[in-house]
Amino acid sequence: MDGDTSQYRSSRSDDQGMILVLVLVLLGMITALVIQSQMVARMTLGTEERKIARVQLRAAATDAAWEALRLLVDDDDRLVDHTNEPWATPGGRLLPNGIETSVQIEDENRRFDINSLSVRLPEKTQRFPLDIVRDILALSRQPDPLVQAQVLQDWLDPDHAGLREEDYYRSLNPPVTIADALMESPQELAEVLARSGSRGGVPPGFAVLPDRARRIMPVNLNTAERDVILAVLGPQNAAAAATLIGLRDAGPLASLTVLNRLLKTGPENPWSLYFNVKSSFFSVTARAAKGEDSEEVYALVCRDAQGNVDILRWVCQ
Ligand SMILES: [Ca+2]
Ligand SMILES: [Ca+2]
């Protein structure tokens, strides 16, 4: 007996179609998952490769910085420092792994240490650190050099008598805690200067040299910025400053004798505590680069008379 089976055939072919669609959807999902996992694996690999590249760059920059520090230790004349010495020559090399390094040592005693403002000198002193800081600010075209110099001094001197001391900073909104202690970093100097209406950040004539003792850090006559020499000697000695700069540009000075002669004074001249012909603070900037990537190491170091080098700041960036 032949019945009408067309409806059963149609139902079976619908089921098969549905199964095919399901299989195709399943295959699509599996393919998407495989592609996604491959992409994740590739991204992870890329991140790992970048991490390894960064570690290699940082290691190369660190090696370059250490190599530069060895030049400071090997300086055969630590009584005189000038810009024609091996340590002052920028260095660098191309490493076998394709990384290119560059390194530069700079003498930080070419600038005037802002922490010298904390030293109290006898009343009869001819030239105070405050005068020098004021003149560096004036030569940097700051709006109100004397007030700004006083603000800086009040910030770091231990007393509470001055133009802007504890009471002023406490009255600010939000209140600020005054340091009344030696400055720690150029960032701190920049912030205090900004509060005093400074324009253009920290003038190049200033350094922030950390120390535990309140002392005047002499400027190295052989490496000093022109404006720093002018500011230390003061406007009344501008001619002597110009002669001094000409002489040291012609060849490194081995002592302060020329300074004494120019100022017609002896070894105890009022400026001798501000000048020297050697340096003790140096900064090292080492950079390693490959393609678009680079790493930098910055170090501030102090070298003593025996050639021992202390690392005071070590920053990787
Ligand atoms: Ca030297
Ligand atoms: Ca103070």
Protein model, in words:
With 317 residues, this protein is an alpha/beta fold. It folds into 2 domains: 1-110 and 280-317, GSPII I/J protein-like (Pantoate--beta-alanine Ligase, Chain: A,domain 2), CATH 3.30.1300; 111-276, EpsJ-like (Ribonucleotide Reductase Protein R1, domain 1, Orthogonal Bundle), CATH 1.10.40.60. It is 42% helix and 15% strand. The protein has helices spanning 6-73, 129-139, 145-156, 166-170, 186-195, 226-233, 238-250, 257-262; strands at residues 91-94, 100-107, 112-113, 206-207, 219-220, 275-276, 281-290, 293-303, 309-316. The strands form 3 sheets. It has a 5-stranded antiparallel β-sheet, with helices on one face. The protein has a two-stranded parallel ribbon with strand order 3-4. The chain has a two-stranded parallel sheet with strand order 5-6. Helix 2 (129-139) packs across helix 6 and helix 6 (226-233) runs antiparallel to helix 7. It is elongated and about 130 Å long. The model has no long low-confidence stretch (mean pLDDT 90).
How much helix is in the residues?
40-55%
Unreliable stretches covering 5 or more consecutive residues = none
Across the major sheet, the strand order is: 1-2-7-8-9
Question: How many distinct helices?
Answer: 8
Label the overall shape.
Answer: elongated
Span of the ends, CA to CA: 91 Å
CATH architecture of the largest domain: Orthogonal Bundle
> Which topology of the largest domain does CATH recognise?
Ribonucleotide Reductase Protein R1, domain 1
Which CATH top level class of the largest domain fits? Mainly Alpha
Can you tell me the number of structural domains?
Answer: 2
* SSE arrangement, N to C: HEEEHHHHEEHHHEEEE
